[in-house]
Amino acid sequence: MSETTHAVTTVLPAPIVQAERLIELGVHEIAGLPAAEIREAAEALGEHDADALLAVHPDRAPASALAPLLSRRGKPGFVVTDMTDVDLFAPLDTTGLPGTPLYLVTGVDRGDDLADWSPDEALPALTGRSRTPLLLTEGIHWVLQRPDVLERNHCFMTIGSRLRKPGGALDARTPALWISNGTGRDGRERREAPKVGWCWAGNRHTWLGFASGTGRRG
Q: SS3 of 106, please?
């Protein structure tokens, strides 16, 4: 497994500034929350964690609704056509997700040093570092606030969200965010667009890190 020294700045706007960005995009309407409630929650949460990601609970704002709000070079984001069940990818039991409509994710990092690791290998490594993998919706929120965290050859998986089969076993797919090449079913018109897709849990990709945080607070 190779490592990369490529770094990404993770500094985020203050939560109240992030709240205004979410309101501008209409995320509060998707979540069924008044804009004032978004602002009040962000102000209260940001009193102790200024550099943290403001996220809406996935039950309120699912990935399928958030992905089209992403944008890169004038191209809107999208979910790959063979991931019609994207909103069924739920948080792992170990993520410690708050039950509040809005919450903060601290210490967000793209996980470039884990590029070329498989999700099966990366999850225990993150746990060993006392880090928790980002949910898919959290990854989308991060790119909404910091579009520059998606770079060619430096994108990321969000393995905190997994799909469980009827018997309880995990589906082998793991969600990720990257940039479309405009090939195959994506369509040439989507080249350079932000893309929600999936990878196999046992496969490695040199251009995908594993986004994670140090904790969540609601």
A: strand
